[in-house]
Amino acid sequence: MLCAGRRDNAMRLTALDEVSERLGLKRGQGLAEARAMFPKIDVMDEDEEADQVLLEAIADWCDRYTPLVALDGREGLLLDITGCAHLFGGEEALLRDILKRLFHMGFDVKGAISSSPGLSWAACRFGRGGVIDDETMKEVLAPLPVNALRIDDAMIVSLHKLGLKRVGDLFPMPRAPLARRFGTQLLLRLDQALGANEEAISPRRPVAALSAERRLAEPIQAEEHILQLTGQIATSLRPGLEVRGIGGRVFELVLFRIDGRVFRIAAGASQPLRDPERISTLFSERLNAVHDDLDAGFGFELLRLNVLQHDTFGAAQGDFIGDGESEISLADFVDRVSARLGADCLQFAELRQSHMPERARVFVPAMTAGSAQKKGDEDLAFAPRSDRPLRLFHHPEPIDAFAATVPDGPPQRFRWRRIVHRVVRAEGPERISPEWWIDPKEAEERDYFRLESDAGRRFWIFREGHYDGKTAPSWRVHGIFA
Question: Which residues form the UmuC domain (predicted)?
């Protein structure tokens, strides 16, 4: 079985099985040439999107070994196992476990462990793999072709012309002539492979501030068992949160299914949490919301609870007659509803530094209300001091004003939404100038009035512009008082 895809405006072989390799076919070879050599070969079109999805699924599965998993192109993974190998019995046992599990899943893979990502990459693709000690790095790297240094094709061809075909051929060469002839990239890659130049691994997912997991001897399927274990894992997280003086704001429950599939379920809280029961309740609502998408299959063998975001935990003494449940009832309601229906289902008005009414507040998910309320009034230098209506329109609506006192008086009557309102009381004006650093030059000043009609309704209207004897200014209603 072969896979072919378009490369350089030509169909070329992109993947081979063992039989094809024994026949002498090579990756990058033209499809027409391969068919001329073996007319009966079976070729399939490559699916890059499906390959990427599969690689990311394997990367999720590798999270059981380390949270630092990075994608290496379209056909490899890099794992930073620093501080993790002892949990699996050492580096050799860890590598053996990874390769064995992936083999039983139907993948033929090769792995290597070393102190250098470049050397591990080279040993996997051009060597035998395995665990490589620091003392044997040169010995392992020397017989490999120069392709193993991750250099471009043009540099490989130039090295071959000089007879430098193995990495070991570069060791005795003076570095200065190599740098002048091939640039610094060749020496950089060589130093990275030998561990002389550190190479960072960029994980594909953010690393959790705190994490705890439970490995199971027997897989579980029932939702109540998942929630019970989630509460137990949250209990083991509590001491770490208390030592740091923080509480979790966003939690992630990672479920590793026995066949390798990984499910990630995130739940947020409006206030920092430590209580295992409340954390378990959050995931109870989330599991109810994603029930149809969560296929337990043959069960989950590993559960992990991550704290993705945290905040300072404000410890407070409870009252003398209860346990303080009344103080968290609103936060608990926000958490449960948001977990069930989504973070955007409840909105919170947050003040912003602007004296323009439509910019002075924005609606944000209620899940963020806890951090927003921590902002004191001193942080809002432009917070309005006068009364504002409870209901503010997103877009001020035009009105027809009658008998307005020139130049700065309010109207005696106005028509809004085809209804005429007679004004019996008025307050104002309150002049608000445009923000010159945001608004266009043609933006005009506004004079706001608080009006009360004969029917008892209260409006917040403004006049945009001034009387200049040529054109009358426009009037608009911006909000309604309760």
Answer: 11-124
Say which amino acid occupies 206.
P
Q: What's the CA angle centered on 144, arms 143 and 145, to 5 degrees?
A: 120
Give the model confidence (pLDDT) of 154-187 as tens digits: 999 999 999 999 999 999 999 999 999 998 999 9
pLDDT lower than 70: segments of the chain: 315-328, 369-386
| pTM for the structure as a whole | 0.70
CB 195 within 8 Å of CB 134: yes
Measured distance CA(216)–CA(302) in Å, rounded: 6
Quick one: pLDDT at residue 376?
46
Alpha helices in 343-457 (DSSP H): 369-372
Q: Between 329-341 and 276-289, two packed helices, what is the crossing angle to 10 degrees?
A: 30
Q: Which H or E element spans position 229? A: helix 223-244
* Phi, psi dihedral angles at 364 (to 5 degrees): -125, 160
What is the pLDDT at residue 288?
83
- Report helix, strand or coil for 165: coil
Q: How many residues does the chain have?
A: 482
Task: Count CB neighbours of 444 within 10 A.
Answer: 13
Q: Are strands 77-79 and 69-71 parallel, antiparallel or unpaired?
A: antiparallel
